[in-house]
Amino acid sequence: MGDFFKSKRFKILLVVLVLLLAFMLQAAWTGGFSPAISQAAGVVVTPLQKLSSSISGAVSGYFRRYVRADEIAAENEALRAEIDELRRQAVNYEEYKHENEELRKYLDVEFREEHPDFEVELASVVARDPDDRFYSFTIDRGSLSGIEPLDPVVTADGLVGVVREVGVNYSKVVTILDVWIDVGARDVRTRDIGIVTGSVDLAADGKCRLNYLPRESGAAPGDIVVTSGIGDSLYPQGLLIGKITRIDNAPGDISLFAEIEPFADVRRLTDVMVIKSFEGQGGAE
Amino acid sequence: MNNKKWFRTAKFATYIVVMVLLYILQTTPGFLTVFGVKPNFVIPAAVCVAMHEGEFTGAFYGVLAGVLCDLGGFALAGFNAMILLAACTAVGLLVIYLLRPGVINFVLLLSAVMLARGLLDFLLNYVMWGYDHVWMVFVYDVLPGVIYTVAVSPLVYYLYTAVHAWFEGRMEA
């Protein structure tokens, strides 16, 4: 084995190791933009991931019908009863159903109308990393679509996370369940402000924490939490985050913290919207 | 290019294509997810190549597997590539000097590689930053991930062994 350490092969591997170290330093230096080696891999892999996630979605949707056959049968019975009831009330159920489906398609349009200052990019979730503990994901839009690091990511239900790394045709998103994230937030009822961040113990349940609530805060379970839009203005004001499910004393009893159940189901997302710009972004306006 | 060289190039290209396809499978949302845990396929692939092709070639496939792992996750780019370069070199050398290539040794070596990588990830990306309840990451995420990956890894081993055997057979013919 000693021969190997004196060989040319070992020296080549050492050079590769040094190159990787250089890539690592470059990645640390460039922050939110992926290093060249990852960008190159991403250009090849992301379109294939997009195809794979669409096939997987279609196949699992097909089989789910059979796996949930009993549940669907019961649901069908209930729906039939409901249709009869609706017929009795002279309401055209099919018309409402169709209208509901159409409205769902335009949720993002509604979102845009509610926030005319937002420049929004629609994106699909194409990959989830097996090693990630906080449900982060990769979307099929990158710098070519004008996405930049730290752009907020939302659904019609509320805030999902923030873009952490951008490649040419992909971006990596950290969710509000991640310990890396800090979002300025406000309790809508009491107007108390705090910081929403992820927590190792809550992430598995799809929850996050609102830290640094004042001790005298009247925040209570059921209160709605939205982005405060203050501080460095990374997030627009008033984006829905979630609902408080529990309040407790923070360690040291100097403040309170709240457990939050996000409105957006971060663990099962398929489509999201990236807010590329909004009024007051970065505190500029 | 003579036939032997052509088959050798085709073999290495096939290893890469299969590894990329495995990467796409492992990152497909919901695919083989059990209680939120997904298996890693590219690390078993790299370890298997290192067993069959030796430390030098194995190291390069370790780097490729690492780059793919870095592409999906949030560890600093190069983190996994460096670990897997060293791990696959070690696997290649162990198989040349001490161990016989076989599925049991593959599973044992892969377990060691996955545990070492999981521990380094846990220490450098979680423990070092002092998060609360950090042990939960190791118990509920790292360990189940290692166990799940090791459990499905024989499939990857037999896939790569079949590719290796097919090309070796053509080269000898």
Automatic annotation (TrEMBL), chain A:
<dbReference type="GO" id="GO:0005886">
    <property type="term" value="C:plasma membrane"/>
</dbReference>
<dbReference type="InterPro" id="IPR055342">
    <property type="entry name" value="MreC_beta-barrel_core"/>
</dbReference>
<dbReference type="Pfam" id="PF04085">
    <property type="entry name" value="MreC"/>
</dbReference>
<dbReference type="InterPro" id="IPR007221">
    <property type="entry name" value="MreC"/>
</dbReference>
<feature type="coiled-coil region">
    <location>
        <begin position="69"/>
        <end position="106"/>
    </location>
</feature>
<comment type="function">
    <text>Involved in formation and maintenance of cell shape.</text>
</comment>
<keyword id="KW-0175">Coiled coil</keyword>
<feature type="domain" description="Rod shape-determining protein MreC beta-barrel core">
    <location>
        <begin position="125"/>
        <end position="276"/>
    </location>
</feature>
<dbReference type="GO" id="GO:0008360">
    <property type="term" value="P:regulation of cell shape"/>
</dbReference>
<dbReference type="InterPro" id="IPR042177">
    <property type="entry name" value="Cell/Rod_1"/>
</dbReference>
<protein>
    <recommendedName>
        <fullName>Cell shape-determining protein MreC</fullName>
    </recommendedName>
</protein>
<comment type="similarity">
    <text>Belongs to the MreC family.</text>
</comment>
<dbReference type="InterPro" id="IPR042175">
    <property type="entry name" value="Cell/Rod_MreC_2"/>
</dbReference>
<keyword id="KW-0133">Cell shape</keyword>
